[in-house]
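Q: What would this chain look like folded?
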Amino acid sequence: FPHSPIHVSSLVSPLTFLLFPLLSFLFFFLNFHLIFLLDLLLTLLPLRLLCDYLFYSSFAIVNPSKGEGREN
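A: My prediction, written as structure tokens:
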């Protein structure tokens, strides 16, 4: 089939032409997004610590019932 390699190459070249900028854009976007997420994590770290504190305080509220269960 002499037509099939030409058909594959004609399919592959537009795909690479379209995918290469898309991949480079995705790489730069993810790189920027990682920096943004790190910045967001640094700003949201006090909120996360506050949520941990609230979680542990609620866990401490649950703990006396467990202690009563142990006493019974």
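The two ends are 84 Å apart (CA to CA).
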